[in-house]
Structure formats: structure tokens, C-alpha cells
Design brief:
- There is one protein chain.
- By secondary structure, this protein is an all-alpha fold.
- The protein folds into 3 domains: 43 residues, Arc Repressor Mutant, subunit A (Orthogonal Bundle); 45 residues; 58 residues, no CATH class.
- The chain contains 10 helices and no strands.
- Helix 2 packs antiparallel against helix 3 and helix 7 crosses helix 10.
- The longest helix has 16 residues.
- It is elongated.
- It starts with 9 loop residues before the first helix and ends with a helix.
Length: 167
């Protein structure tokens, strides 16, 4: 790999970026090109990093998706958008979404967790209709289907409040 005089090599820069956090191939490529490395050099570095196992979109996509669902309790619509923005292949994104939402962590159970967490933030004495509207909006923004957001905010709100509590 060619070295630049007085400037960090493309490979060294890539290692530095990967040392901070994992990246998708597209993310790393965009960052390296933004640093004005030549496209051919960037492609060569990316190929080498894939060959060494430092870049693996398949593994990173799965880890990133599980972390987002586990930490942020996101629904499939929002997660699909996040994964697509990271540059993951559409087929890989759909496979990962199927793995996450068609196992023990299905969309309804993830949505119930998000609802319980949100219910804990409602102020004591809030109007029940206002609470239901806020819950629906929250779940829709999190990327859950409108049907699930409706079911939880309208039909299941009493059980969510009992388990999630309110201030």
C-alpha cells in the first residue's frame, strides 16, 4: 500500500477508525474518500480489511441490529431505516429483521417493553386519552407497525401502566 509523505496512509487511517468502533464497508469507504484518499487505494484497503476479517457487514449488521433493539427497543420499520442508512445490503437487512422479529423477541414483545418504559415517564394525573395518544405516537416513532401501536395504546394501556408504573 502506498504511503503518503506527511499524511497518514489510507490503511493506517482505516485501522484507526476501526479501533474506535465497527463500521460497515460503505461507512468506512465514505470516511476514507472524505479524507481525499484515491478511490483505487480505498478499494484496495477495503478488500484487504475484508480479507483479514476486520470488516464484516454480515456480522456487524446482526450485532448492530440486536444492540439497537435491546437498548432502544426499536420496531422493524425504524430498524430497517437505520440499517439501510448504514449501507447494509437490502437482502441482509431483511434477513436480520426476520431473525430478530421472528424469534423470542417478536415485534409485540419488543413494543410492550418500549411501552412499559415510556409509561414510567408519564406524570401522575395525566389524562388517560392524552396518555394513549402519547403512547401511540411514541410507538409509531420507534418504528412499530401502526396496528401494534394502536393495540397497545388503546386495548392494552391499563396493563402497560400497571407494569410500567407512572410518576
Amino acid at each position: 500500500m502506498p504511503r503518503r509523505r506527511g499524511k497518514q496512509s489510507c490503511l493506517d487511517r482505516a485501522y484507526g477508525l476501526l479501533a474506535r468502533r465497527a463500521h460497515s464497508v460503505l461507512e468506512l469507504k465514505d470516511k476514507l474518500l472524505a479524507r481525499e484518499y484515491e478511490n483505487g487505494e480505498v478499494e484496495q484497503v477495503l478488500g484487504r480489511l475484508i480479507e483479514l476479517g476486520y470488516l464484516n457487514d454480515d456480522l456487524y449488521c446482526r450485532q448492530y441490529a440486536r444492540a439497537r433493539v435491546g437498548r432502544m427497543r426499536l420496531g422493524p420499520r425504524r430498524l430497517r431505516g437505520d440499517l439501510t442508512r448504514k449501507g447494509f445490503d437490502g437482502e441482509l437487512v431483511e434477513t436480520v429483521l426476520d431473525e430478530i422479529y421472528n424469534t423470542g423477541d417478536d415485534e409485540m414483545s419488543v413494543a410492550m417493553e418500549a411501552a412499559r418504559k415510556k409509561a414510567g415517564s408519564f406524570k401522575k394525573g395525566i389524562d388517560k386519552n392524552e396518555m394513549k395518544r402519547k403512547m401511540f405516537d411514541h410507538l409509531a416513532r420507534k418504528g412499530f407497525s401502526l396496528e401494534i401501536a394502536r393495540r397497545i395504546s388503546l386495548d392494552m394501556m391499563d396493563s402497560v401502566i400497571k407494569k410500567g408504573g407512572g410518576k
